[in-house]
Amino acid sequence: MGGLLVLALIAGYVWGAAKLFKRVGPYWAKALVVIAAILIPTADAVYGRIKLKQMCEAEGGLHIYRVVEGVEGFDYPSMTPIDEWIKKYGYHFIEGEALGGKRSRIRLQPDGKIVREVGVIPIAKYAYEVDKGDVRDTFLRIESRVVEKGSSEILARYVNIGYSGGWFERFVNGLYAATGNAGSCGPTVYPSELITKTLKPIKQEQTQ
């Protein structure tokens, strides 16, 4: 249904532009009609893509300000701790959120076993945070960062900015109840890359 509506709107727009083109007399006026017909649905989309490029160059991408060596563990508040961080990356403990909103921690024991604790008091000096921005923004800025909890110092950040397109693109996406993405900074930097490049664990080799 939405596709038919879009086609009908496009057909109506072209028909109206063609009718206006025939009605105006001078060639310069006809040229203005053609230019206006092209720019009305596309001008802000072109400008938006130029602005996106400028924003990405100014603040997008991965930025590491300080690397910390010998880190035992960190806090990932928005995720339930998983043992991959210990087995694959060599950290000794990870803190996060368990079911029910309680704080939890997984910890590597001296005998190599991994235990999970629920209802703990956080002890991590560092944390991974994500600011997902406002999905209603035409330019959606999403920032993930590694911070020192005591001082709130930002050790590293990854910024990606998504552009939802010009007004016509947003209008079409709205018909399908979709957000849409006409471009972004890229390439994607995953949490594991941002964290491991900033917080170097005590044990660098993988724990089997």
Question: Outline of this structure?
Answer:
The chain is of the alpha+beta class and 208 residues long. It is built from five helices and eleven strands; from the N terminus they run H-H-E-E-E-H-E-E-E-E-E-E-H-E-H-E. Strands 1, 7, 8, 9 and 10 form a five-stranded antiparallel sheet that branches. A four-stranded mixed sheet has the order 3-4-5-6, with no helix packed on it.
Major sheet attributes = 5 strands, antiparallel
Percent helix: 25-40%
What's the number of domains? 1
Low-confidence stretches: 204-208
Strand content: 25-35%
| Morphology | elongated
Order of helices and strands: HHEEEHEEEEEEHEHE
Note the total helix count. Answer: 5
Instruction: Find the structural class using helix and strand composition.
Output: alpha+beta
**Terminal CA distance:** 55 Å
